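User
Take a look at the entry that follows and flag anything odd:
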Amino acid sequence: MSEEAHHSVSCPADQGYKAEEPRFRPFANPGGPGWAALGVSLFTFSFYAGAIGMPFDNPNVAMLASTSLVIGGLVVFISGMWAFAANDTVHATIFTLYGSLFGAVGYLSVLGFNVYNTLDQDKTVSHAAGTFWLAWMLITLVIMLGTARYSAGTTAFMAFLFISFIVLAGGTWTGSKNAVKAGG
């Protein structure tokens, strides 16, 4: 094609046509399902750890396992990934971490570890569970400090969770079922 012929071909750009900008479709807020699932999971776990819904010696932890794995683990974790995609790092961090926590609690429940039934019988289990809750207490402290400038409600939630984890860690380390009930 000659150069003259090349210039005589009209294209839409020459006629004032502007290409449409690609549309960014923002994600919906993951806070609703994330906080709801986290609340249901904490509520169920509190009933179990506080021995309100079932006594410590009841090996049937199916409700805790299913709630922890599906609602607490899967839904909260997915809400965390959803928050990452929506550029919400605070919710992404909270939901991803606590989704992992409840996934671990659910997995241990499925395996049949009734940690709170063996507190006064097996010191190895008590110390392992105490270390688990101590680690989550420290993670919660870091998140609580990080959310201080973000939201007073989130910071208060983290503060109560921090206190709960302190009491759970102490109760499981010492084998005190009353302390575990208070932490629950």
